[in-house]
């Protein structure tokens, strides 16, 4: 039986809501049955009508929705939160307290203090919070992780990760661009580039390497005059095993569309993954020729090959990564955390917010090293 899904946010004019709806339908594990899609009631009503929902299950606000769905015999099993960042914590709290599991877009919330409070709510409720770091669900990202954990690179020495975009290279927040508008407001976004794409880079580096830095030194910059949040971030990282790392995230890097790239270097070799060529993983052994592993090929580990949704040679990427998150979310909601051990959850969300907080404090102190332990 499909899980009953509700959604908060994702009304007309929103981008990420449609992505979540497609992902939830990809494996036929979920059925969207309810929503509070917008604070604008007419937007919410039209969205529900377009999605063929029962008008009685389109709600004026998320608090009403949480209470009503918790009281229904056929109420939702889980809610997807696809709102601007400042609403993540209050919406998640309302549904967790109503006994409903949560799938939440990243970053987890607006501040580290808010993240710690939300973690307490998750623990107290006994329900689950799943975070949609979709890039960690790509088959070849899973392959990269498997090869690092199998020791193929030897001892990890450096980690280089970047996420480069150009879409905010001009002050779009001064136009009618809805995405640029709320993402450039500190009270709604919490952070700028570091929260929007920097946390993806941070999570990818940790997910593949298994390492979290002990300390970081950061510089956050707003290159666009008058912009209230950072649009470029540079972070140096030190790890407990002696490894070093660098993270660069930018939304003003002209010529780059969605350039998420990870390179991990060890004593016996290195690997490289680029999201824009997500069907390839480059391995570079020490003193041996480099080789490319392609998605769904016989060179992949069997457990990762099974993640492929289409035959080898057919491009697969962003939507399928979200689909894999939802497929594993369904398994976890039915059978518990052990059914999907690699799925990002509340711990990943808290770590991401701790990273943002430390980077902001470091930058404000002129790049001072900040201990993360």
Description of the structure:
This is Gfo/Idh/MocA family protein. InterPro entries: Gfo/Idh/MocA-like_OxRdtase_N, Gfo/Idh/MocA_oxidoreduct, GFO_IDH_MocA-like_dom, NAD(P)-bd_dom_sf. It comes from Serratia quinivorans. This protein has a 9-stranded mixed sheet. The mean pLDDT is 96. It is globular. A hairpin with a 5-residue loop joins strand 12 and strand 13. The chain is of the alpha/beta class and 373 residues long.
Shape: globular
Strand and helix order: EHEHHEHEHEHEHHHEEEEEEEHHHE
Total number of strands: 14
Portion of residues in beta strands equals 15-25%
Count helical runs.
12
Kindly report how far apart the N and C termini lie: 43 Å
Query: Residue-averaged pLDDT, rounded?
Result: 96
The residue ranges in which pLDDT falls below 50 over 5 or more consecutive positions are: none
How are strands sequenced across the largest beta sheet? Answer: 13-12-11-10-6-9-8-7-14
* Percent helix: 25-40%
Which structural class should the secondary elements be placed in?
alpha/beta
> Any idea what the radius of gyration is?
20 Å
InterPro entries: Gfo/Idh/MocA-like_OxRdtase_N, Gfo/Idh/MocA_oxidoreduct, GFO_IDH_MocA-like_dom, NAD(P)-bd_dom_sf
Domain GFO/IDH/MocA-like oxidoreductase: 141-272
Organism: Serratia quinivorans
Pfam families: GFO_IDH_MocA, GFO_IDH_MocA_C3
Present the secondary structure layout.
Layout: E1 3-9, H1 16-26, E2 30-36, H2 41-50, H3 62-71, E3 78-82, H4 88-97, E4 101-104, H5 112-125, E5 129-131, H6 139-149, E6 156-164, H7 178-183, H8 186-189, H9 193-209, E7 215-221, E8 232-238, E9 244-250, E10 259-266, E11 269-274, E12 280-285, E13 291-294, H10 302-305, H11 318-335, H12 346-364, E14 370-371
Parallel strand pairs: 1-2, 1-3, 3-4, 4-5, 6-9
Antiparallel strand pairs: 6-10, 7-8, 7-14, 8-9, 10-11, 11-12, 12-13
Helix pairs in contact: 1-11, 4-5, 5-12, 6-9, 9-12
